Amino acid sequence: MPTPRVLGSIVGILVAVPFGLVAAPDPGQAASQPPSNEKVVVQKSEQAPAKSPSKGAPKPKNVSLRMAEGLRFDPPRFEAKPGELLAFNLENVDISHQPHNFVIVQPGMVEEVVKLSMEMAASGASPGALPKHPGIIASSADVINPESKAVLQFKVPETAGVYGYVCTVPGHGVVMYGAMYVGVPMPLLSKDTNIPQVTLEKGLAGGGKRPFVQRLFMPNSGPASIGVALPGTQNYCFDSAECRVRYAWSGLFMDGSQYWRGSGKELAELGDAPWWTSEAFPLRFKDRELKAADFKFLGYSLKGEFPEFHFKVGPQEVFESVQPSGNGILLKFRLPGISSNVVVRMDSSAYWSCPEGVVVKGGFRIPAAKAGEFSVLIQPKEAFETAVSKTSAPSASRPAPSSSNP
Amino acid sequence: MQIRFPLYSAAVLTLAPIALHAEAVSTAPAATSAKVPATGATSSTPEKPFYSASERDSQMGRFYKVTQVKAPAGIDSQVGALSVLKDGRIVAAFHRGEVGILNPEKEQWSIFAEGLHEPLGILEEADGSLLVMQRPELTRLRDTTGSGKADSYESVLNDFGMTGNYHEFAFGPVRAPSGKLYVGLNLASSGDTVHEEVRGKWLPVGLDRKEFYGDWKKNSKEAGRMYSRVPWRGWILELDPLTGKSTPFASGFRSPDGLGFDAEGHLVVSDNQGDWRGSSELHVVKKGGFYGHPASLPWREDWGKVAPLDVPVETLDKLRTPAAVWFPHLSYANSPTQMVLIPKTPAWGPYGGQFVIGEMNVPKLLRVTLEEVDGVWQGACYPFVETSDLQAGLHRLVFRGDQLWFGRTHLTWAGGDNIGVVESVGPAPMDALAINLTKTGFKVRFTRPLDSSSVDPTLWKIRRYTYAYHKEYGSPELEQEILAPTAVVLSEDGFTADLTLSELHENFVYDFYLEKLRAADGEKPLNARAAYTLRRKR
Questions:
Q1: pTM for the complete prediction?
Q2: Which residue in chain B is spatially nearest to A124 when comparing CA positions?
């Protein structure tokens, strides 16, 4: 049994890269420092943060650093003060179950250390083996396994610079690195060349091109969904398993970067919350109720770059395309060979109108003579109410009058 | 495509040196469901290779040239699929769903299609249309207007389930000589749960569906490390492109990233180390076969309501067909990928007709040879081309004439991106060409005549070990023993050494160390390793 679908709150595009972790002002304690930063205390611990230091010793500042799926450190960069004592709370949260390590290197040394780790792997070293390189300042003692934590105390060098941190498990460091800014201001995120390019990529499907079709995991729909950006500002989600438009939204298309740089479990983020969410497949033939097994998706063709979907509902072949229409969308149906009436069932979250249809309870009836090709206009309720409030608003439970068609 | 490091056991973390002593080892033939010591007695830490990386690169450079090819500008260049068209152009599908066509002579890409969902396989049809396997379906792309871009995206095969779990990749298609097509469907991973909506009938065997939406960290342990809760996950499907009808073909797969056919038309499928996979594997697949991973079993028609994890290992062991070839973990491959046949051309010399297979984690290509003994498939794998220029992530392979093109990917695992080409530029290096089982041992054929000193049995070292069949992730090397042949006889032409062993055991890897051998011309073996998986004695 499918669990009930919950229309979650869908936020706008948030390519949020956390980069807070600004050093807590604690200058007094940074002055008297324990050992040189070559000496690294590593504690394996199930509970973060680090143990309280003994009395009188400077209290390290906690820095949370997660190793995440998609071969990335979260955050990919942070600021630290020269000479301050940090306690890195390292946590491997990589759901693709890979071990990672954490190696801090001198400014500009990430690439060289990564190269060395690859050479070591090629020479038969264990994937967890740490490279020996003069550019390495500190590191976790060994790999940190999935769902494990480690704490690493670290005295920030006195010399200002952009220090790299990297995972040297072979193959990881090419993209799995970050930047510790010590006494150097951080540039704008979009201009930062010290962090992996992938962090900077905005993941708008199609790169903003319209019209555009992108198949991806989408929120509040089945896993075989198809996102479509129409010319103008409208977008919709077509569920290929249920053979219907699931919802429509306006504004930006969808951001797939979480999926593309992550493990592949993530959903696309819609540019805005849908203004219409369909409740069920809208057509009925001879008033027959439909089961999931009645639907068979057959693909789509691009006609002037608009996809026209092709599917079967029982024996009936259906072609459906969607066009922008004012602030709404126009669903255009073609039903080759149809010889009976078709009923269009409305739902309540938008205004529906149907020029070829006759208003009946709950929707429209398309007479057999017109059922071969007809269209349904769906408009946002709010916009429609604004438009018609100037004249005389019809009852919300009734279909919008066909005069509102463009 | 399970491309991951093993979960490191304590033994590996402490980098325990590999035990190469024969004394403590039982000589009893392993039950195929070998018992595993509570703590890994032997780890599969890679051994020190014959060459240093730089020496290896320079040696490899005498025989192979690697060139790099850039993916189209401005796209994520991870390659999910790679093929060559009848007209010689290269077609590649990329991570975000673009299908690009490259004219290699002009070094020009054109984008043929966009917006596909994780395409991982591509195949041209007789009429020039392209079949692309994407996560949700097999799609036929056609350019019906002559614009150079696909305008028809026909859904050819979509009647299999999807839960939205990230690990449910879809691989293939490959075409049999009969014209039928085969695709492989991954299991879901307990690394994540399922989406609220799924496609396909939910299997009511195993962890209750509502638990999938509860505390997953806790509940996932009951789901099985890899699970199949919608139809045909863990299966190979057969599709008749003429009728559009698909049928379930074989079960028991975990992550069948590589599908291919040998020269005689046998379907071969690679799978990756993990649960129920002591090491990575290559299977020769027959209709109705079960190839070891039990998660897919409840979709069999003859299966009752028993959860596969409740079935005793011994029962599963009897049901399964073991792998024809084990790729010993770390020392040979971490995550083998696609296999293709090496062309029988002068450039590739003696290797023509063998398989070359890619590897995700290290810059290495391997070869595979197969033979059938008493109806049982078995064979050997051999390191082949290993050089830094290959880089990691060798995911998709295709021959364009004598050029071996390869596409790299990583997703969230180790790997690389973009495309490269390997060419054979020298004579065949000195190496083991093929190992075949005899009644008393092995015939090892080389690419060059062996030096007459090779009859000295002490120059040969064979390490024998096996892997466990169990639900745990991977397996240590078990029951290992160091062997030397009791006699070595060279063939008249010097190419083949006939080794006699004092005894042979089924279900063991025979891992050959050949670095002490020399060709008659003085040349050292280039790779000097080969691993034969013995399933059935002659």
A1: 0.78
A2: B48
